[in-house]
Design brief:
359 residues; Rossmann fold; OB fold (Dihydrolipoamide Acetyltransferase, E2P); six-stranded mixed beta sheet; five-stranded antiparallel beta sheet
Length: 359
């Protein structure tokens, strides 16, 4: 992936009647990267994708492709391909003709069409399926045909609108790997839309988090997960426990005090400068960043009671009520059956945390 910007969205806004679907969104997409628009239903991610594709016209803002303003260009002139959620295969055409459709529309000669279709079917691992009809294919195979049809025309940008949502859970995981393999093998710039966090984190070079039409944070999966910039992002990506803390700032240190026995003292330079004006913060702690002990220690002073637990194979998820009545979640790697029982008093050690303002 190069650092060259291939696509730029500048101040994109889309209003439907009285609803702002996309709100002043600006984003740069780098050549060859896999970037995911991630957010809850109704956040504006699919509308943004349709604006990029030329299927929806923005109310305001510009779409720039390779330095050229294409905001007013029709979809067919943008050199982009889009794979929809329902695949949109032609039911009366076999696999070969479905994949070849775009090439035939471009009036390429038969030999080139045949060679390019065979090449892309090999890429998506569907050699020998040329004469199958869509109804003879599994969901995963149909998805790969739709992908092959999008890739065979050699677009500058590949757009994917929740293409795995109709597949069962195990096949979705397999297809994530396949999609990423294909994207890296050919190096095509890909913009992917999903509400599935696991898809976004496992497939993307960068993730763009959206909510209520706004772009909240863009970063690598690690940056988004480990260093969220807002409570919404922290809460939306994975699971997060939020401890309320009060801030006391002295000349050299910042102290954060909670009412559950976990307090933090930081050198002033280690405290986020932009939060210095806040008197209240959240200590945001991932469930896997806490440990359970039977007895209190110098590092395990948070007292709680186990309300329930869930066996999930590779881990056990504990639901714990703290002294202030708050319920938190702790994920512990599984080694045999749960060593703790419902109702048991335990103590908690915090391994790492993130600070976010709450006022």
């Amino acid at each position: 992936m190069s650092g060259t910007t291939i696509l730029e969205l500048k101040g994109i806004t889309k209003v439907f009647d009285d609803t702002i679907a996309v709100d002043n969104l600006s984003l740069e997409v780098r050549e060859g990267e896999f970037i995911t628009l991630l957010g809850p239903s109704g956040c504006g991610k699919t509308t943004t994708l349709r604006i990029i594709a030329g299927l929806t016209r923005p109310t305001k803002g510009r779409v720039i492709l390779s330095g050229t303003d294409i905001t007013d260009w029709p979809p067919y002139a943008r050199n982009m391909s889009m794979v929809f959620q329902n695949y949109a295969l032609f039911p009366h055409m076999n696999v070969f003709d479905n994949v070849a459709f775009g090439l035939k529309m471009r009036k390429l000669d038969k030999r080139e069409i045949k060679n390019r279709v065979r090449e892309v079917l090999r890429l998506v691992r569907l050699e020998g399926y040329e004469n199958r009809m869509p109804h003879q294919l599994s969901g995963g195979q149909q998805q790969r045909v739709a992908l092959a049809r999008a890739l065979v025309v050699e677009p500058k940008v590949l757009l994917l609108d929740e293409p795995l949502s109709n597949l069962d859970a195990k096949l979705r995981v397999h297809m994530r790997t396949e999609l990423k393999r294909i994207q890296k093998q050919i190096g095509i710039t890909t913009i992917y839309v999903t509400h599935d966090q696991a898809e976004a984190l496992s497939m993307s070079d960068r993730v763009a988090i959206m909510n209520k039409g706004k772009l909240l944070q863009v970063g690598t999966p690690e940056e988004i997960y480990e260093r969220p910039k807002s409570k919404f992002v922290a809460d939306f990506i994975g699971e997060m426990n939020f401890l309320k803390g009060k801030v006391d700032i002295t000349a050299s240190r910042v102290k954060i005090m909670t009412d559950v026995g976990f307090n933090v003292s930081l050198a002033k330079e280690d405290f986020p400068t932009e939060y210095l004006k806040h008197k209240k913060v959240f200590l945001c702690i991932r469930p896997e960043h806490m440990e359970i002990y039977r007895e209190p220690t110098a590092d395990a002073l948070i007292s709680g009671k186990i309300l329930d637990f869930q066996y999930l194979g590779h881990l056990i998820k504990y639901f714990i009520e703290l002294e202030n009545g708050q319920t938190i979640i702790i994920n512990q790697p599984r080694i045999g059956l749960s060593p703790y029982n419902v109702g048991q008093r335990i103590y908690i050690r915090v391994l790492s945390y993130t600070i976010l303002p709450r006022d």
